[in-house]
């Protein structure tokens, strides 16, 4: 990769996908690319945004393939979410009634680790990502995160979780309120995508969302997440 750009071959290697498949998607306008002198080039930020949106519709097997292609050395591959989550970064219940207060509260929870150096910069980046497109899924779950990694704003990657007592309008595709929030703050794109893919698999796991909603406190919610992460393997 030259700077922030991929060639077609580099993108195929990065995504673990067949080169011909990606070329067909680009030719059909289904993959963001730029053709220069007859050669496809792909901007890293556009590819990350595209993959984030694609993953919303992926099956467990497809998400597992993303995990494999984006495997991060910062994570324990067997439990990538648990690698970045701790009991101190879980808050149940989380006191918030608006999108802004929710994001401020989650960043404060993540900051308990002392790994967050620039909370204001992170808040601004997460808000800008939400303005671009909501990170809310159906069934009351959202995965707020910055559009681009902010390595200068934190010492290590962190995942925080919070459940609000009431739902918050968060732009979910089913137009329902959201009450389960995973804040994903990673120092590099590979770690970011690895964690998002695993969270997508957890959300799809039977009973996972219901169990989180039933957890009466942070300890039980944390143990539930760790156990589910371990079971997926």
Describe this protein's structure.
The protein has 233 residues and is α/β, with parallel strands linked by helices. The protein folds into two domains: 5-55; 80-232, Mannitol-specific EII, Chain A, CATH 3.40.930.10. The protein contains ten helices and seven strands. The protein has helices at 8-15, 19-27, 44-55, 60-69, 80-84, 99-110, 119-132, 189-204, 208-214, 218-232; strands spanning 5-7, 34-36, 39-43, 90-94, 141-142, 158-168, 178-185. A four-stranded mixed beta sheet has the order 4-6-7-5. Strand 2 (34-36) and strand 3 (39-43) form a beta hairpin. Helix 3 (44-55) runs parallel beside helix 8, helix 4 (60-69) packs antiparallel against helix 8 and helix 9 runs antiparallel to helix 10 (218-232). The longest helix has 16 residues, at 189-204. The two termini are 31 Å apart.
Strand numbers in spatial order across the main sheet: 4-6-7-5
The total beta strand count reads 7
How many structural domains in the coordinates?
2
The CATH class of the largest domain is identified as Alpha Beta
What is the annotated CATH architecture of the largest domain? 3-Layer(aba) Sandwich
- As a percent range, the share of strand residues is 15-25%
Low-pLDDT residue intervals, each spanning 5 or more residues? none
Total helices: the number is 10
Give the radius of gyration.
18 Å
Overall pLDDT level: 94
How many angstroms separate the termini?
31 Å
**Topology as a string of helices (H) and strands (E):** EHHEEHHHEHHEEEHHH
Largest sheet: 4 strands, mixed
User: What is the share of helical residues?
Assistant: 40-55%
Spatial shape: globular
Considering the protein shown, what is the CATH homologous superfamily of the largest domain? Mannitol-specific EII, Chain A
Secondary-structure class? alpha/beta
* CATH fold topology of the largest domain: Mannitol-specific EII, Chain A
């Amino acid at each position: 990769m030259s700077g922030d750009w991929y060639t077609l071959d580099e993108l195929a290697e990065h995504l673990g996908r067949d080169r011909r498949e990606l070329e067909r998607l680009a030719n059909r306008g289904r993959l963001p690319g730029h053709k220069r002198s007859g050669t496809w080039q792909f901007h890293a930020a556009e590819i990350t945004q595209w993959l984030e949106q694609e993953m919303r519709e992926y099956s467990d097997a497809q998400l597992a393939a993303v995990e494999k292609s984006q495997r991060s050395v910062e994570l324990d591959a067997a439990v990538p979410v648990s690698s970045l989550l701790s009991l101190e970064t879980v808050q149940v219940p989380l006191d918030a009634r608006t999108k802004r207060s929710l994001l401020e509260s989650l960043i404060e929870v993540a900051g308990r680790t002392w790994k967050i150096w620039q909370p204001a910069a992170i808040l601004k980046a997460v808000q800008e990502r939400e303005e671009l497109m909501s990170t809310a899924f159906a069934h009351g779950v959202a995965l707020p995160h910055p559009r681009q990694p902010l390595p200068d704003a934190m010492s290590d990657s962190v995942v925080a979780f919070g459940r609000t007592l009431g739902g918050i309008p968060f732009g979910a595709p089913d137009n329902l309120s959201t009450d389960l929030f995973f804040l994903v703050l990673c120092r590099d794109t590979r770690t970011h995508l690895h964690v998002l893919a695993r969270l997508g698999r957890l959300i799809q796991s039977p009973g996972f969302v219901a169990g989180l909603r039933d957890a009466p406190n942070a300890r039980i919610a944390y143990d539930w997440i760790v156990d589910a992460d371990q079971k997926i393997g």
